[in-house]
């Protein structure tokens, strides 16, 4: 479901998916997307650990957590792990899309050169989704559901 949502956004492309946190880390390193969406509840490696490893390997890539788990302290732990924002799966899909757009904008702002003559690099974005067989929509920490790439 997450992949379908992301691919409806003009200019975005899912660049990868993963079935678990360990695979999400490997694909993030391989694909180097501009945005990564993880779920907290992933098999093999949970979303917080995956976020820590991805943040360490790719410190400039914004991480978003898309999850049903909204226990007290989760947001603080996710931010400590390198997540920029937590979006609850019960929220409107626009919340997630807005968070991705904000993350892409931050990547774009970081890429703006000091000289206006230099062309800007194309921005890439990635999202992860749940692949644990749950009834939840795919989320960022359970699978690397892909990266949205603006055209």
How is this structure best described in words?
- The protein is α/β, with parallel strands linked by helices and 151 residues long.
- Helices cover 36% and strands 12% of the residues.
- The chain has helices spanning 2-7, 21-31, 47-57, 74-80, 93-111, and strands spanning 36-38, 63-67, 83-88, 126-127, 146-147.
- β2 (63-67), α4 and β3 (83-88) form a beta-alpha-beta unit.
- α2 runs parallel beside α3 (47-57).
- The longest helix is centred in the last third of the chain and has 19 residues, at 93-111.
- The radius of gyration is 14 Å and the shape is globular.
Beta content comes to: 5-15%
Distance between the termini: 22 Å
Q: Characterize the biggest β-sheet.
A: 3 strands, parallel
How much helical structure, as a percent, in the residues?
25-40%
Form type: globular
In spatial order, strands of the major sheet run: 1-2-3
Mean pLDDT: 77
The radius of gyration over CA amounts to 14 Å
The assigned structural class equals alpha/beta
* Secondary-structure element series: HHEHEHEHEE
